[in-house]
């Protein structure tokens, strides 16, 4: 691993004895295939209010210090799922991680999520992740004629898959899974969560098809129940439980 380099950043003019600003070091794993085949850590020291988020710090670095720093983000409010990254060794959304909550007295490490090819800095190739998502057919499948009114569902039936509707496809779960790290062919937790969302929907009629897809050698049976996915999910989805429910449905064919 290369020795970290240091970029010093000027003190924010608003800093004063009463200022909430503190100096925080962000140690970011940089990779630019046009410059080097090797990634290396680079330190950035910035003045920032610890009540701000890691995403704010990344913006500050990009806008004020080094415009080449590359990362994804869109909504900045935990909805779009585009800024999952490893922060202090744990998968988190940068926009939902307050600096004060991750010990700003020590350098805060930021790197790309694991198991997917890094394209540049914190940006990974999400194509295999979204291909697995598409493979489980994440849409309502029905047979017969078009209904003349909306498809009704009891509150109890809706509750059955409520948890898995919360997924924002951030990939924090899949990229925290050791099975996925070892073999990117595994569908991964996020695809299974999204299959669960339709398998257990009383209005859907494609459950058998999805179960057969997940019965594949790269499907649910690869899960080793490590709970990394549940720990990583920023939406608090019980990912491992959902995977277990899909396994059970495969055995009992009841869903
Ligand atoms: S289940 Fe959670 S961690 Fe996995 S992709 Fe969906 S929101 Fe992200
Ligand atoms: S930027 Fe959209 S979830 Fe963080």
Automatic annotation (TrEMBL):
Biological process, per Gene Ontology: respiratory electron transport chain; tricarboxylic acid cycle
- Taxonomy, superkingdom: Bacteria
What's its top-level EC category? oxidoreductase
Domain named 4Fe-4S ferredoxin-type is located at 157-179
What catalytic reaction does the record list? a quinone + succinate = fumarate + a quinol
- What are the protein's GO molecular function terms? 2 iron, 2 sulfur cluster binding; 3 iron, 4 sulfur cluster binding; 4 iron, 4 sulfur cluster binding; electron transfer activity; metal ion binding; succinate dehydrogenase (quinone) activity
**UniProt remark on cofactor binding:** Binds 1 [4Fe-4S] cluster.
Under which name does UniProt file this protein? Succinate dehydrogenase iron-sulfur subunit
């Amino acid at each position: 691993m290369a020795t970290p380099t240091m970029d010093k950043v000027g003190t924010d003019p608003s800093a004063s004895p009463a200022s909430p600003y503190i100096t925080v070091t962000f140690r970011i794993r940089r990779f630019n295939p046009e410059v080097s085949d090797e990634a290396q850590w680079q330190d950035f020291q910035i003045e920032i209010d610890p009540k701000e988020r890691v995403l704010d710090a990344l913006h500050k670095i990009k806008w004020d210090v080094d415009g080449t720093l590359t990362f994804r983000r869109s909504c900045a409010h935990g909805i779009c799922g585009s800024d999952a990254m490893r922060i202090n060794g744990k998968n988190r959304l940068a926009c939902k991680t307050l600096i004060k909550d991750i010990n700003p007295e020590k350098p805060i490490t930021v790197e790309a999520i694991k198991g997917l090819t890094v394209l540049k800095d914190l940006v990974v190739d999400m194509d295999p992740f979204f291909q697995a998502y598409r493979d489980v057919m994440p849409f309502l499948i029905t047979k017969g004629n078009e209904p003349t009114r909306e498809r009704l569902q009891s509150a109890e039936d809706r509750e059955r898959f409520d948890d898995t509707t919360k997924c924002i496809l951030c990939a924090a779960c899949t990229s925290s899974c050791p099975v996925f790290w070892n073999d990117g062919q595994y569908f991964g937790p996020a695809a299974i969560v999204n299959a669960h969302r339709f398998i257990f929907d009383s209005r859907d009629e494609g459950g058998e098809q999805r179960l057969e897809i997940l019965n594949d050698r790269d499907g649910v049976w690869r899960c080793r129940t490590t709970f990394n996915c549940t720990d990583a999910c920023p939406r608090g989805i019980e990912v491992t439980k959902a995977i277990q429910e899909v396994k059970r449905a495969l055995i009992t064919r009841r869903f």
